[in-house]
Amino acid sequence: MTILKRTGPAVVDEVAARDPDLISSGGSRTWSVCGSNFVVAITELAAGDRLTEHDLPDEHLLLVQDDAVVGVEHADRPRETVDSPALVVVPAGTSTVYAAAPTTVVRVFTSRCDEQMRRAVNHTDGPDPRTAPLPETAERGGDRVRVHRLGDIPVREGRFGRIFRTASLMVNWFPVQDGPRDTESLTPHSHEDFEQMSVTLAGNYVHHLRVPWTPRLSQWRDDVHAGVGSPSMTLIPPTVVHTTCAVGPGPHTLIDVFAPPRGDFLAKGWVLNSGDYEGAGRDRG
Q: Longest C-alpha distance within the chain, in Å?
């Protein structure tokens, strides 16, 4: 299934079902979908190719999902090498990512990154007026590349996923789930004033989506049960009731993206790198 217009309860994009939005000179292929405040790019990074982003106004996030050796360069600082699953915070400015072997990476940019937003297949849809804006100023967590290796993060009872932030972005990278989700313990919910991007990197899923009824019958929509493979990106607008269910055997990998950072996650102490952003701008709950 591929839905590329924000006319229904979500933008659902199965990457393999369409042509890439960008093909680099080295053969890497990138698919991008944007929300009001962020853009998510999935890149099949070719071995030896170098992807450079120039003069970004904000930090961005790089998600490395396997053991391929990925290098990250920023400004004049020493190269950072990532050789296991990790979330990487890359400072504002110019940076380059490359890999020694083919791999798939995910990058998350803010909507202030104009070129990256224009690459998104749905960029002409425009922002959702219900979505709270990004903070006016972006406080930075530092001027160096920061690598958070997932293998260094122990499982803790009561913590919801593995949550990281920048001043403007938040990502929840769930642990790999083996097999399907229990369909008797789903968690349907909605967000009043922010969007959620759900990114699948392994396994099959169903996104269950319900648009709340309003007094205007013309605005009512049927429920959507969008089945997706991996990789895929699903943008869920504010107020839409949603829950996601892993289906079928094998490993499943799911990542949720938000912007601005969620105040409820911060208040619960679930954000693993929150100490880098003491005093950052207004966060959404």
A: 59
- Taking Cα atoms as reference points, which of 41, 3, 51 lies closest to residue 20? 41
The predicted-structure confidence for 203-219, as pLDDT tens digits, reads as follows 999 999 999 999 999 98
**What is the pTM assigned to this prediction?**
0.94
Q: How do residues 217-262 score in pLDDT, each as one tens digit?
A: 998 999 999 999 999 999 999 999 999 999 999 999 999 999 999 9
| Secondary structure of residue 274 in the 3-state scheme | helix
Closest CA to 61 of 216, 253, 261: 261
Strand order in the sheet with 241-247: 224-228, 204-210, 241-247
Tokens matching residue 223 = 């429920």
Question: CA dihedral in degrees (86, 87, 89, 94; nearest 10)?
Answer: 70
What structural domains does the chain harbor?
A: 19-150 (2.60.120.10), 158-275 (2.60.120.10)
Beta carbons within 10 angstroms of residue 35's beta carbon: 28
Nearest to 221 by CA among 10, 5, 36, 4: 10
Element (H, E) at 267: helix 263-267
User: 280: pLDDT confidence band, cut at 50, 70 and 90?
Assistant: low
At residue 84, does pLDDT exceed 50? yes
Bridge-based pairing of strands 241-247 and 163-165 is unpaired
List phi, psi (to 5°) of 235: -95, 120
Residue listed under structure tokens 């979500």: 10
- CA gap 178, 71 in Å, rounded: 29
- 3-class secondary structure, 269: coil
> What pLDDT score does 263 carry?
93
